[in-house]
C-alpha cells in the first residue's frame, strides 16, 4: 500500500509493471511533472481564470485550459506576478505634496522628504522584478526610513511609527467598504445610467444619520437646505457656492454629515415645513436634531477623526450667528446641579466685599451673578458659547493647515474637488478672522486668532476670497471694516488699561484719526450696494455700531472736560448719537417692511440693544423734559415694537430685549406734571447738559426697578444690598466705563 505523501511534495501514483516491480513516486509542480500533477493557481493560471478567480484545469493534448476551450477563447499565461506593494496613506500624501510643489525641492521641505524619494514607482518596480524577499525588503525600508526621517517633535515620531507599521502591511483606506460606498455615491460613473444614478443618490440619502434614524425625511432635508441657502447663506457664505446647487446636496449628506446636521438644526428654527402642521413638525425636528448635533460637536472636542473637516469648522462659525433654542435653557447644555438657575455659590459672597480690582476670578464671578439674575441670562450664555465655538474653530483650522501659504493657484489640470477645497479653506479663514474681531470687540477681550494668521488673511485672502461670491464688493467692505474695528477696539482697550480718569486724557487726536478712517471707508463702500438688500442693511448696522463704539468715550469725557476740548468732544458725542439713531433707523425703514428681522444674526440683535441704550442715554443727557413726540423717543418705541413682532419664536431673546428696553424707556421718561411733588429739583447741569446719574426717578415709574417680580429675578437669590454700587465697582467707573 502506498502512503499519501502529497503534502510533502510527492504524488502517491505507485503503479506496477508486468514484472511486479513498482515505479517510484512522481514529483508535484515540477518541470518534469505530468500535467495532472500540476496545480494551476496564482500566476500559473491563465489570465482569464485568474481574473475570474476560478481553477485553471489543463486538458490533455491541448495548450489551452478547459474553460478557454469551452469558451473558445485565447488562453494566455504570464511568467511573473503583476502585483506590487501598495503605498501607505502617508506615503501617498507625501508624494502628492511633492508633486504639487513647483521648482526645486530641498531636503528640509517636507519631514519625510528623503524617504519619499526612495519609493518612487520605478524603484518599487525594480524591486518587484528582482523578486527580492518581502522580509528583506521590509527590513531595508524600515531601516532607511528610520535613518533618513527628520524628527522635530512627537508628532513626527508618531508619523514615523505609522510609516513602519503600514509599509509592510500595505494598508489602503480605499479598500474599506465605507470608502467604497462614499466613492460610489459621490463620484459619477463613466457611463451614465439614470437608474444606477438614482440608486446611488437614494443610497447616499438613506445612509445619512437623521434619515436612517427616522428623525427626518429626504424631502424635508431638501426644504431646509433650500431655505438656508436662499435666506441665511448670503449673510454668512462660509460654505462654497458649489453646494447651493440641489444636485450637490447629496455630497453634503455623504461627505459632511456634521455640517448637514447643523444646517437642518438652524433652518428648522426659522423655517416651518410645508404642508399641514408645518410649525409643529419643525419644532419637533429641531429638538431631536439638536441632540445629534450636540454629540457631533462633542466628538470633535474628544478627538474624533470622522468629524474633523472644513464642514465642522463652518458649523461652528454658523452657530455663532444663529443659535439653537436650547440656549434659553441651561439644563439642555449641562445636566449638573450647579447650572440650576437658583443655585448660589458660597464663593460669591467674597465678591461683595471686594471692589478694588477686576481680576480674572472676580470677572467670572461678576458674569455668573449677572447671569443668575435671569434678566438676559441667555445673552450671557450666548457670549460664552460663541467664544468657545470660535476657539475650537480656530484650533481645527490650524490643525487642518488652512492658514498655511498655498504654493500655487489651482490650474486647469487640477481636479474640481481640489479647487472647491481651496475655496472653502479661504472662506473659513476669512470668516474666522471676521468672527474673531467681532467677538473680541463685543466682549472686550483680546482676539483669539494669532497675529501671524491674521496677517495671512489680510495679505493673501483679502483680495481673493470674494471672487466666488455674488456680493463681492460688500464682502470686501466687510473685511476692510474689520480693520477699522480693530483700531477702535485697541483704542478703548488702551483707555481701560490706563485706569486714569477720562478728563486727564487727550482723546481728540485719536478720535480724529478714527473719524478719518471711518469716513474713508464710508466713501469707498457705503453706497456700493448690490442687489442683496438684507446684506447691505447688516453692513450698515455694522458700520453705525463701530462709529458709535469708537466715539462713545467722548460723551463720557465731556462733562469733566476743559473748555478747549469741550467743543471737539461735543461734536464726537453727537456723531455717536447720530450713529445709534441711524442704526435703529435701518431696523424700522429697511428690515421691518421686508420682514427680515427674524433672520438677523445674533450680533445684530446686540447692536440693536446697545444702540437703543446709547440713544436713550444721549437723549436724557441733553434734554431735561422729554416728550413722547421727541423723534428719538418715537424711534425707540418703533424699534421696540418691531423687534417684538419680528421675533422668530416665543423663546428668542428678542422677546426679552423688547420687554426690558420698554421698561427702561418708560422709566426714563418724566412722570406727568401732576405726579411731581412741589419743590422737586432737577439734576444739576454741567456745560448746559444734564448730569448723568443724578436724575432721581419719582412718580408712578419710580418703582419699576424696585419690583423684583417684573425682572424675573429668583426670589431665593441673595443679591447685594446695593447692586448698582456693586456693578460700578466691577465695571471700573472710577476710570474708564465699559461700553456698551
Automatic annotation (TrEMBL):
Polar residues biased stretches: 18-36
GO MF entries: DNA-binding transcription factor activity, RNA polymerase II-specific; zinc ion binding
SUPFAM superfamilies, per database record: Zn2/Cys6 DNA-binding domain
Keyword Nucleus among UniProt keywords: yes
Region described as Disordered: 1-40, 81-120
Any one GO cellular component localisation term in the record: nucleus
Domain Zn(2)-C6 fungal-type, residue spans: 45-77
PROSITE patterns assigned to the protein according to its UniProt record, in alphabetical order: ZN2_CY6_FUNGAL_1, ZN2_CY6_FUNGAL_2
One BP term from GO: aromatic amino acid family catabolic process
PANTHER family for this protein: TRANSCRIPTIONAL ACTIVATOR ARO80-RELATED
UniProt-recorded name of the protein: Zn(2)-C6 fungal-type domain-containing protein
Lineage summary: Eukaryota, Fungi, Dikarya, Ascomycota, Pezizomycotina
Amino acid at each position: 500500500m502506498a502512503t499519501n505523501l502529497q503534502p510533502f511534495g510527492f504524488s502517491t501514483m505507485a503503479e506496477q509493471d508486468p514484472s511486479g516491480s513498482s515505479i517510484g513516486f512522481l514529483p508535484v509542480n515540477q518541470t518534469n511533472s505530468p500535467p495532472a500533477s500540476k496545480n494551476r493557481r496564482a500566476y500559473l493560471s491563465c489570465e482569464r481564470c485568474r481574473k475570474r478567480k476560478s481553477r485553471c484545469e489543463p486538458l490533455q493534448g491541448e495548450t489551452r485550459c478547459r474553460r478557454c476551450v469551452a469558451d473558445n477563447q485565447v488562453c494566455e499565461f504570464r511568467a511573473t506576478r503583476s502585483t506590487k506593494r501598495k503605498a501607505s496613506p502617508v506615503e501617498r500624501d507625501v508624494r502628492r505634496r511633492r508633486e504639487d510643489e513647483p521648482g526645486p525641492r530641498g531636503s528640509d521641505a517636507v519631514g519625510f522628504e528623503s524617504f519619499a524619494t526612495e519609493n518612487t514607482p520605478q524603484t518599487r518596480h525594480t524591486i518587484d522584478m528582482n523578486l527580492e524577499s518581502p522580509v528583506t525588503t521590509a527590513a531595508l525600508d524600515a531601516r532607511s526610513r528610520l535613518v533618513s526621517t527628520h524628527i522635530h517633535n512627537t508628532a513626527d515620531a508618531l508619523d514615523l511609527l505609522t510609516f513602519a507599521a503600514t509599509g509592510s502591511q500595505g494598508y489602503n483606506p480605499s479598500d474599506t467598504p465605507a470608502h467604497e460606498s462614499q466613492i460610489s455615491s459621490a463620484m459619477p460613473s463613466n457611463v451614465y445610467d439614470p437608474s444606477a444614478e438614482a440608486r446611488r443618490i437614494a443610497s447616499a440619502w438613506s445612509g445619512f444619520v437623521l434619515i436612517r434614524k427616522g428623525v427626518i425625511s429626504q424631502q424635508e432635508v431638501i426644504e431646509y437646505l433650500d431655505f438656508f441657502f436662499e435666506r441665511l447663506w448670503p449673510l454668512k457664505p462660509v460654505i462654497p457656492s458649489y453646494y447651493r446647487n440641489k444636485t450637490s446636496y447629496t455630497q453634503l449628506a455623504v461627505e459632511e454629515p456634521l455640517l448637514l446636521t447643523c444646517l437642518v438644526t438652524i433652518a428648522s428654527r426659522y423655517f416651518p415645513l410645508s404642508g399641514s402642521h408645518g410649525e409643529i413638525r419643525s419644532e419637533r425636528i429641531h429638538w431631536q436634531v439638536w441632540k445629534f448635533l450636540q454629540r457631533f460637536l462633542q466628538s470633535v472636542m474628544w478627538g474624533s477623526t470622522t468629524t474633523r473637516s472644513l464642514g465642522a469648522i463652518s458649523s461652528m462659525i454658523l452657530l455663532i450667528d444663529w443659535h439653537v433654542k436650547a440656549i434659553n435653557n441651561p439644563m439642555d447644555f449641562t445636566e449638573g446641579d450647579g447650572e440650576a438657575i437658583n443655585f448660589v455659590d458660597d464663593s460669591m459672597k467674597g465678591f461683595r466685599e471686594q471692589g478694588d480690582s477686576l481680576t480674572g476670578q472676580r470677572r467670572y464671578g461678576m458674569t455668573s451673578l449677572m447671569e443668575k439674575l435671569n434678566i438676559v441670562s441667555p445673552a450671557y450664555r450666548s457670549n460664552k458659547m460663541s467664544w468657545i465655538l470660535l476657539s475650537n474653530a480656530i484650533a481645527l483650522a490650524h490643525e487642518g493647515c488652512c492658514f498655511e501659504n498655498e504654493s500655487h493657484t489651482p490650474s486647469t489640470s487640477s481636479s474640481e474637488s481640489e479647487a472647491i477645497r481651496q475655496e472653502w479653506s479661504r472662506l473659513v479663514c476669512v470668516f474666522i478672522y471676521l468672527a474673531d474681531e467681532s467677538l473680541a470687540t463685543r466682549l472686550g477681550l483680546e482676539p483669539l486668532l494669532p497675529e501671524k494668521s491674521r496677517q495671512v488673511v489680510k495679505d493673501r485672502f483679502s483680495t481673493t476670497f470674494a471672487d466666488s461670491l455674488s456680493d463681492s464688493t460688500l464682502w470686501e467692505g466687510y473685511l476692510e471694516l474689520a480693520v477699522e474695528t480693530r483700531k477702535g477696539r485697541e483704542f478703548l482697550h488702551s483707555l481701560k488699561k490706563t485706569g486714569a480718569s477720562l478728563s486727564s486724557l487727550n482723546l481728540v487726536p485719536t478720535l480724529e484719526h478714527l473719524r478719518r478712517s471711518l469716513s474713508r471707508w464710508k466713501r469707498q463702500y457705503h453706497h456700493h450696494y448690490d442687489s442683496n438688500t438684507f446684506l447691505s442693511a447688516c453692513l450698515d448696522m455694522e458700520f453705525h455700531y463701530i462709529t458709535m463704539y469708537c466715539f462713545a468715550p467722548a460723551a463720557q469725557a465731556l462733562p469733566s472736560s476743559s473748555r478747549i476740548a469741550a467743543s471737539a468732544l461735543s461734536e464726537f458725542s453727537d456723531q455717536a448719537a447720530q450713529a445709534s439713531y441711524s442704526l435703529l433707523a435701518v431696523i424700522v425703514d429697511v428690515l421691518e417692511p421686508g420682514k427680515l428681522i427674524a433672520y438677523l444674526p445674533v450680533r445684530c440683535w446686540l447692536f440693536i440693544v446697545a444702540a437703543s441704550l446709547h440713544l436713550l442715554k444721549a437723549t436724557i443727557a441733553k434734554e431735561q423734559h422729554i416728550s413722547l413726540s421727541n423723534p428719538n423717543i418715537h424711534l425707540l418705541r418703533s424699534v421696540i415694537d418691531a423687534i417684538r413682532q419680528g421675533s422668530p419664536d416665543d423663546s428668542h431673546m428678542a422677546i426679552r430685549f423688547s420687554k426690558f428696553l420698554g421698561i427702561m424707556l418708560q422709566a426714563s421718561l418724566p412722570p406727568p406734571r401732576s405726579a411731581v411733588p412741589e419743590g422737586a429739583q432737577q439734576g444739576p447741569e454741567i456745560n448746559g447738559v444734564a448730569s448723568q446719574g443724578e436724575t432721581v426717578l419719582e412718580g408712578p415709574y419710580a418703582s419699576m426697578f424696585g419690583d423684583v417680580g417684573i425682572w424675573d429675578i429668583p426670589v431665593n437669590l441673595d443679591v447685594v444690598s446695593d447692586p448698582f454700587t456693586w456693578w460700578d465697582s466691577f465695571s471700573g467707573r472710577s476710570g474708564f466705563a465699559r461700553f456698551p
